[in-house]
Amino acid sequence: MKKAKMLIDRSFTVADVDKRIYGSFIEHLGRAVYDGIYQPGNPMSDEDGFRRDVLEMVREMQVPIVRYPGGNFVSSFVWEDSVGPVSERPRRLDLAWRSLEKNEVGLNEFSRWAKKADAEVMMAVNLGTRGIADACNLLEYCNHPEGTFYSDLRVKHGYKDPHKIKVWCLGNEMDGPWQLGHKTMEEYGRLAEETAKAMKIIDPDIELVSCGSSNLNMPTFPQWEAVTLERTYDYVDFVSMHNYYGNPTNDTLDYLAVSDDMDSFIRSVIATCDFVKAKKRAKKNINLSFDEWNVWFHSNAADNDRMKNQPWQIAPPLLEDVYNFEDALVVGLLMITLLQHADRVKMACLAQLVNVIAPIMTEQGGGKAWKQTIFYPFLYTSRYGRGTVLQPVVDSPVHDSKTHENVTDLSSVAVWNQEKEELTVFAVNRNIEEDLELSIDLRSLEGYHLAVHVVLENEDMKAVNSAAEEKVSPKTADRTKMDGQVSTSLLKKATWNMIRFAK
Ligand code: AHR
Q1: Which residues, 6 or more positions from 137, have their beta carbon under 8 angstroms from its beta carbon?
Q2: Is residue 94 within 6 Å of ligand 1 at its C-beta?
Q3: Is residue 444 over pLDDT 90?
């Protein structure tokens, strides 16, 4: 059998995990809000119309921050439409998704939902069709205590206490030609700089995210980051990253290597931020907010057809990818990669959370809520991947795939939770033909014993879950043995594993 080794020492660390790396995203898109988190009249909904079963699953995932209200949606969003008496709110054309927005849920209702979900809101402002004044007014409405036009308006709307929203995104994917109000890097850099400057005068405690590239393959990457950050560097705290992954040619081995693409994307963005830092003789670092990441490709053709031929519907089913087992492996791999960069990736959002490229689905017409395959690697990584990411020495066999070279069979990360005295190793065997024996040397963690080995596996790479049947869910496995401070685990081919040790 092939063999891999991990040598772990608790003195060798990458960084503490910022829990906001386990964020997610709700956009006014498809059935994410209406029919997703909000469905008045459903017996499962609470007094505010929020689905209790969905909230329960979100809390189970321990999502600490949720990005809102878009996405592409935000780039033509008029926030004032979404506040005040619901009966007076206008219906609007949502140009991003060719849908009808009824504004029944707006930013006050969403803040209320987020509280119930034990999450903070990460708010995006419209820098597509709108600008500095609108962003400032929105911030004043949300965060200023009272005694000004917009803060008093919030109080009049029934929200005496400010929402105290800490994290603000300066627009969304402004480098993308599909974006309403798409800008050149020079135009965006200036607008984001001036918006950031004004917003930090209103509330110096906020954290700002400057728009990075929409994906690794954008022709303007990484020049976009270099030019825009030169403008925004002094005022912002993060640059955003977005990327979606897929398996359109049905090549599983190559698909399981896409986390290497995420790794090289992150490394390049760090290098670009640090290039601007050097150029400006700056002291602070810009951190990364990977605020849109996931698998997304299953639903593309159907969505294009629906938007073209059946436009202007309220909450049409859009981006409803049904995820299979190999997608869950990829989500597990992407989370390992994010954790490996915990020193610079301080926020990340699984895009999205409910019904739209989501781990949580609700049946159309008000039926059950159910968990997609990708729910599980997220759940376990979020719950147990908290503490300090360690820097292990790893030795693994490698293989090549169609478009990737030197892909390690083992992809892994170790997180030490000092408070709970637990060490958790997340490990995927990316080899789809051979099992792997992993030995972990825990030399500096004396007295630690095996707590549990959880595995996500399935003989059918294309197995999916549904409201009726859960074919893909994790199990505990008797595949790890300990001998003194060294453990040996069997990682079956194409499996996701969580091996936890406790004192
Ligand atoms: O998450 C779906 C969409 O993907 C978002 O609206 C947009 O920002 C990205 O292109």
Answers
A1: 150
A2: no
A3: no
